[in-house]
Write a structure and sequence with these properties.
The protein is α/β, with parallel strands linked by helices and 124 residues long. The chain has five helices and seven strands, in the order βαβαβββαβαβα. The model has no long low-confidence stretch (mean pLDDT 95).
């Protein structure tokens, strides 16, 4: 059975790119376009990891990260930030809020897959 990875990103082109990379490496991507869907899909699918964009409609990605990490049923799921935001500003804050890794778009396939494997392996 393929490991499910929740991709939280409102941009369809980002979803398509990230999901293609994940499928090519035998993961099953699940999509959420905003923070509300992210919480719902995370509860429903209990993914092995979550890829989270920080620029989401209707709320800051950091709020979503805090909600995921503050939920006793979801807090153990590693969250990898995948964003266009400047890492000098956002990376430290993301890691302080419980993110497993911080990747800047455009992300390379091998970099993404390495971060996913490291996050999943670190969870065990």
């Amino acid at each position: 059975m393929q490991s499910k990875i929740l991709v939280v990103d409102d941009a369809l082109d980002s979803w398509q790119l990230l999901s293609t990379i994940l499928r090519n490496h035998h993961f099953q991507p699940v999509w959420a376009a905003d923070g509300i869907q992210a919480m719902s899909e995370a509860r429903k699918h209990q993914p092995q990891a979550i890829l989270l964009d920080l620029g989401l409609p209707g709320g800051d990605g950091f709020v979503v990260l805090e909600r995921l990490k503050g939920n006793r049923f979801l807090s153990a799921i590693p969250v990898i930030i995948v964003t266009v935001q400047d890492p000098r500003i956002a990376e430290q804050k993301a890691l302080e809020h419980g993110a497993a890794a911080f990747l800047r778009k455009p992300v390379k396939a091998e970099e993404l897959i390495a971060a996913v494997h490291q996050a999943i392996d670190g969870k065990k």
